[in-house]
């Protein structure tokens, strides 16, 4: 509906979603504000198009009933507020709190900001004209919330847009109560309210009865607003990117097809003469990534977009479309026959959704079982995701002086500055490197210093890689190497020996993408509470593992017996055991024990 009607901003009321932060509905994203705990109730959200999202200046979740977004169009500032007012059945204190919060919110925007208030306010303003606030095209009926809305609009110089446009009676009411296909009550309770200085920009406010498809007793209220050309913010980062569908390589046929595709390219390259380090790397990268992309395909991640639910399919889409058409026919005819037809289509759509969800759950269960047998990491990752549930992501960070940043680009810039300063420490004095015994240690490696890298070394290093890990900036995933078989091993031997012989490292191997992960303690808005995880090139890791294995082989005899934690067969558990044994022996003799522990911050 959002894309079909070409919407820019959509306000949702009574979402009954918990938490605050980013939310995604199909291919549209925005932010939500709901209760933190307890029974799911109330809740509001604002969804924006990609064009508007690029112009967002600030988001603010005020309460489970109130959220707003500030947008800059050219030199104009606009604020879109989504509000959900408490009904007359709620207690007086709750209603007073909501209207006070809304009034305080509108007051804080300032005089140079154009404000648009949208949502289900549970207010009835009547059909009596009030100069500069209520027009002559309202509907009968007024309640306490309506009086509060009129008073607030009078004080804040705002106009109730629904009442200023001539419409048919059926296109004035935004809420209906039905019983047996008959309307027993109706009212105007969903509004588009704008600042008086911007009322000339409001071109129309209409009720679209068929868009809800009978899923709600409220209709869609659509307002058309004229604004200046958008002020486009730079989007150099945070855009959607392509990722290889490496999970497809689990299929034996796909893996064989990938090896055949890669083998054809390798046969052409191995007959050629060895060229420079970067040229050899570009040949390998383009062949591996290109073959995997051709066989497996790609998926888009990031950018705030997603394709939708796993259970959504063509059958469900057709059933929902037929139900919507039947609903529109019933809205026009209002007879018993069309109502029964609509009910039948509604049951068919509900049945199709139920069957599609059951099939999706069955597929999910089979995948979970396979992961438990073959990939424990992915199994527990999915279990944790289900346990925690899906909540909105909240991108906020504090500056050094304590100011809060919540706009995407500003947050990313702040994190980049933090990690750049953390990882590039400037010392006042030059580093002093001890040379004692350096020559003797290098001689221990013997022929390994000059010997070319062998296929066995590469195969052993590739075998140590773990699947399911994110690729580096080059896009080459672990699965691309492991599923390539002997072809990849042979090609890697040539590639790594070129760099080893020339004492050079490819530029992509020296580049890393830093991803901040919360440590689980401390202020979530402080950069210091996050540790940076570097996503490195997988092929660069293979090269590094080959060199490390050579160093370990040549220096194992030189490391003291007390060194553990980084050696095979000597883990941290062994150190804990030694500490415990020493303590027991000393205590048995009645002697004191002194231990010193040092933890290097951000080591």
TrEMBL record:
It comes from the Eukaryota. InterPro entries: Endo/exonu/phosph_ase_sf (IPR036691). PANTHER family: REVERSE TRANSCRIPTASES. This is Uncharacterized protein.
